[in-house]
Amino acid sequence: MKKLLLSAAVLFLLSAVSLAQVRGSYMETRSADVYTGQCFANGEVNLNGSEALMAWHIDSGAWEGVRLDGTTVAAAVRAKATLGDPYAEPYPAKSVVLIDDRSTPKQQKALLSFARRQAGRLLENVVRVERLPIVMEVPEGEHVHGRARFQAGDIAAIHTRGINGKDHLCGNEVTFYSPLTDVKHAMAAVALKDSYTGPGLGTTWTLEGKRSAFVGHFEAGAPQVARTHSH
Question: Which pTM does this prediction carry?
Answer without folding.
Answer: 0.84
